[in-house]
Amino acid sequence: MADTEYLAKPPGACCREGHIHEGEPRGSIETVLDIKTYVSKPSKPNGHILFYFPDIWGFFKNGFLVMDAFADAGFLVLGMDYFMGDPVWVHRKDDDDKETEPDFSYEAWKIKHQKFADAHVTYWVDAAKAKYGQADTKYACVGYCFGGPYVCNELARGSVQAGAFAHPAFLKEHHFRNINGPLFLSCAEIDHSFNDEGRRKAVDIMVAEKKTFQVQLFSKVIHGFALRCNLNDPYERYVKEQSLKGIAEWCNFWLSKR
């Protein structure tokens, strides 16, 4: 497969669907390089910082609550709004409508924001480390959907000591060949983006390249399960919680070793 082809395809229409969860976010909005940054502080710090790269919903309640849950696991969590206040959900006809405004181009929106994120994530990470880190701080990152490539990019350049993603998008072969740290993959059986073929090829690459990784695969769930599942369904709730728990434990383990 040429590296121009995707192992995890770009976000599709189903990425714009999902459930909004109950709860009140407790973090604050600060700025790093003039980019809004969600900051969630742990009550019992483990001394580590976790960078959060959002899905196409950007800054929304579910994402804030997930960041707060990682803070409950001990991390100082820093989430980047690379959509600059323009997540996909603001283009819905109304809050309860799955359809977007008639003049909204999803493809143009993706191209615009991917270009911005590609150009700014690395600088944001470095600036956030300078602002919030200490000499002995260790770093991890997690990405959902749109955020998956930035996890691999940061692992490739060695700015973090561990990384994880759930139901990723926009991934090519080089993202897996170039990682220089342990990667946790939280995956859905039913995923238009990271399907069986793409996932298996990614694993084959990492095995051949002797990378450190773990694959967590949940049956009967779809793309978006780790952020926008139906929490009234006991199994979907369980899967979401296990994904977050697995990512937190993975990052804590590897940061304790480095």
Automatic annotation (TrEMBL):
This is Dienelactone hydrolase domain-containing protein. Residues 35-250 form the Dienelactone hydrolase domain. InterPro entries: AB_hydrolase_fold (IPR029058), Dienelactn_hydro (IPR002925). Gene3D superfamilies: alpha/beta hydrolase (3.40.50.1820). Pfam families: DLH.
